[in-house]
Automatic annotation (TrEMBL):
It comes from the Archaea. InterPro entries: ArsR-like_HTH, Tscrpt_reg_TrmB_N, WH-like_DNA-bd_sf, WH_DNA-bd_sf. This is TrmB family transcriptional regulator. Pfam families: TrmB. Residues 19-94 form the Transcription regulator TrmB N-terminal domain.
Amino acid sequence: MPDSLSEQLQSDMECEGLLECFHGLKPLDRECFGVLVESDEPMTIDEVAEAVDRERSTAYRAVQRLLQTGFIAKEQINYDQGGYYHVYSPTDPEIVTDEMQRMLNDWYAKMGQLIQEFEEKYDRSETESATASS
């Protein structure tokens, strides 16, 4: 992934790249997300691990990162005889996109503020007029 904003704007980014761009997710996280999206049913960690051909613990860490970002949801399934397990499924895309739009708006406002601060700090005409009037 490109580092600077100008490099990002010039790169051929896919929509799935937003997972990495907005939340710093890793390629494995993206792969796990894709597996969950393609599945007709919620999946267990073991099923996700098998689908991405990784150890259970590795898949679990990726799924935890996806949970933290809100891209997927976790549901507890109870056994009749006691005990339970969890299954994972993708969150409604509208909820995810609303959150990404909110983050983008916050980022845009922050960048606008920083640009204004830059202009105020480095505006030569303002600095020169302050020096001349002294």
